[in-house]
């Protein structure tokens, strides 16, 4: 009976197609569908924002009418739009509008010249207007080991207060004027969770770590709502240019929701926008209230079922379970202790340590309670877990949630997973927990190689275990974490396959990272399409090119499945289509 019904539906679809030609049709292509059968076809047709045909060129004829826009792909590559399962779009968009050092490895004179250029370009706000620069690759300053201080900035031709934000987000460099306005002096003691670096004379040297630079939040004028809308618009344009058609804002603050909602109302939302409001560890004492707050944010901003026009969706909540494993922070929660330096900086001598990093930010009981409460509300938890101890706790929490909310369609995600204990590999599949991986981290670089003395050879060999998790059956999803790195999805996809740095990264970063086998090009593309669609609970309508699904697709300048893997980084997106509408065209 089911088979007969299905034939009837297909027949109706076919007759309807003849009656109404497609709006757009692509043919002579290599169309990667990301469907369950792993099909690659030649042609696809769209009507009213949905896919009405996927198949060979010959079958396309009935869908071609007078008004059909016909695109000859000439052997080119077409695939579902990229779904970025973890990023911070408003902050990223603000950065695009700020003075940026573009994550470049700079010498001190280059660093100064870049900042002077930003000062000169906005000289009208002398002498009191703040200069805030972003994208400072502090760990990559050249030559290695060179340091900066407020004197580096005080040497510039300006009276203005200046702060420079590191791309990793843990350090700010301030000039003397900025320190004075923030009333940071030799007498100021370190705040909880932060450090004011002092020079030999006990004076602040301008480098401020973590909570120590929170003070600027209250003294630098906050962006206006109009500026935030401009930032959101800039972020969307950058995302569409990379082929992104859906994304998750992995820590949605009120201003994020306000800015993107405003663009939705004005018809300018060009990607499907998902938001994960934050539940903080300090809310552990009142978890019901925290969950109720997320529910009320959903009520206020969520625009309903995913349809042709991109909308705002609130179906996730974000919880941090630890910090970052990278040195010198070492705030990732580990199963086994970090090693420690028993020697000096000049002549280090690493030995077994006793610290496993901070305790997981939510205890097991609270985590189980909050995840279960979220599940009852139909909210998917998005857990930040970087160290293997945090990942283990996340899986335990999800296990408790699965028991208490048996059968509920909840899609828990664990972001980052830079270290995962071998005992936990199979649990991702067993618990249907999605690891959300930033593939561009899976390479030899300052942050990964800098960990070697702290975690030792055995753990180093299985750092960034995307391939190992995939081999254990995990459904890997991709998330760029933009703006922690510059937005470059195709470089990330390349690294997911090769586990190598860029060819010009320098000899110290040559070769592959660790023993992990990496992912196949197809697995990487599936992570950034159908698997991320599953994470975001929109796989019924996006993530693959199948009959009846929404027409979210991209056309590329080359085939990432057949080019040498290093060249995946060179992919250019020719066209980005969301719900049948072209939102980006390269030419
Ligand atoms: Zn993030």
Could you characterize what this model shows?
With 587 residues, the chain is α/β, with parallel strands linked by helices. It has 18 helices and 27 strands. The protein is 30% helix and 21% strand. α10 packs across α11. The strands form 6 sheets. A 6-stranded mixed beta sheet has the order 3-2-7-25-26-27, covered by helices on one side. The protein has a 6-stranded mixed beta sheet with strand order 9-10-11-12-14-13, with helices on both faces. Bound molecules: zinc ion. Zinc ion binds next to loops.
Short recap of the structure:
This protein is 30% helix and 21% strand. It is built from 18 helices and 27 strands. The longest helix has 18 residues, at 2-19.
Q: Provide the spatial order of strands within the biggest beta sheet.
A: 3-2-7-25-26-27
Q: Radius of gyration over alpha carbons? A: 25 Å
Largest sheet: 6 strands, mixed
Percentage of residues in helical conformation: 25-40%
The tally of beta strands, per DSSP, is 27
Low-confidence stretches: 1-17
Q: Which structural category fits the helices and strands? A: alpha/beta
Number of helices: 18
């Amino acid at each position: 009976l089911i088979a007969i019904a299905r034939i009837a539906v297909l027949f109706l679809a076919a007759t309807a197609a003849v009656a109404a030609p497609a709006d757009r049709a692509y043919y002579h292509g290599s169309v990667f569908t990301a469907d369950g059968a792993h099909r690659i076809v030649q042609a696809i047709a769209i009507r009213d924002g949905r896919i009405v045909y996927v198949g060979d060129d010959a079958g396309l004829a009935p869908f071609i009418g007078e008004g059909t826009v016909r695109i000859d792909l000439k052997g080119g590559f077409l695939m579902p739009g990229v779904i970025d399962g973890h990023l911070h779009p408003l902050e990223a968009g603000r950065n695009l509008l700020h003075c940026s050092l573009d994550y470049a490895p700079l010498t001190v004179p280059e660093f100064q010249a870049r900042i002077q250029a930003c000062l000169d370009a906005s000289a009208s706000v002398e002498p009191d207007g703040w200069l805030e620069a972003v994208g400072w690759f502090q760990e990559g300053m050249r030559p290695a080991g060179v340091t900066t201080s407020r004197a580096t900035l005080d040497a510039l031709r300006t009276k203005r207060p200046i702060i420079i934000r590191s791309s990793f987000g843990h350090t700010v460099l301030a000039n003397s004027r900025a320190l004075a306005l923030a009333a940071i002096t030799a007498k100021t003691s370190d705040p909880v969770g932060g450090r004011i670096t002092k020079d030999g004379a006990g004076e602040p040297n301008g480098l401020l770590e973590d909570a120590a630079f929170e003070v600027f939040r209250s003294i630098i004028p906050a962006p206006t709502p109009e500026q935030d809308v401009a930032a959101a618009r800039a972020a969307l344009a950058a995302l569409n240019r990379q082929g992104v058609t859906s994304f998750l804002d992995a820590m949605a603050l009120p201003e994020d929701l306000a800015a993107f909602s405003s663009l939705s109302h004005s018809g300018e939302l060009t990607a499907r926008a998902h938001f994960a409001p934050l539940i903080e560890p300090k809310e552990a004492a009142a978890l019901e209230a925290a969950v109720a707050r997320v529910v009320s944010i959903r009520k206020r901003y969520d625009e309903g079922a995913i349809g042709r026009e991109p909308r705002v969706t609130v179906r996730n909540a974000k919880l941090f379970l630890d910090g970052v494993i990278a040195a010198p922070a070492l705030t990732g929660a580990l199963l086994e202790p970090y090693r420690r330096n028993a020697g000096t900086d000049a002549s280090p001598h690493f030995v077994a340590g006793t610290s496993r990093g901070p305790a997981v930010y939510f205890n097991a009981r609270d985590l189980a309670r909050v995840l279960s409460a979220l599940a009852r509300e139909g909210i998917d938890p998005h857990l930040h877990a970087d160290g293997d101890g945090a990942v283990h706790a996340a899986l335990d929490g999800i296990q408790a949630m699965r028991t208490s909310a048996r059968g509920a369609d909840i899609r828990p995600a664990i972001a980052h997973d830079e270290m995962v204990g071998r005992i936990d590999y199979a649990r991702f599949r067993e618990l249907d927990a999605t690891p959300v991986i930033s593939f561009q981290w899976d390479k030899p670089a300052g942050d990964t190689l800098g960990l070697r003395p702290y975690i030792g050879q055995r753990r180093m060999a299985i750092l960034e275990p995307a391939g190992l998790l995939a081999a254990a059956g995990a459904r890997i999803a991709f998330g760029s974490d933009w703006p922690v790195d510059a937005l470059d999805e195709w470089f990330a996809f390349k690294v997911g396959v090769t586990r190598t740095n860029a060819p010009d990264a320098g000899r110290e970063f040559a070769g592959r990272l660790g023993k992990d086998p990496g992912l196949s090009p197809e697995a990487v593309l599936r992570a950034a399409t159908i698997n991320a669609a599953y994470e975001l609970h929109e796989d019924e309508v996006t993530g693959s090119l199948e009959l009846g699904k929404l027409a979210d697709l991209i056309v590329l300048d080359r085939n990432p499945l057949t080019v040498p893997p290093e060249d995946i980084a060179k992919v250019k997106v020719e066209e980005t289509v969301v719900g049948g509408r072209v939102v980006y065209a390269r030419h």
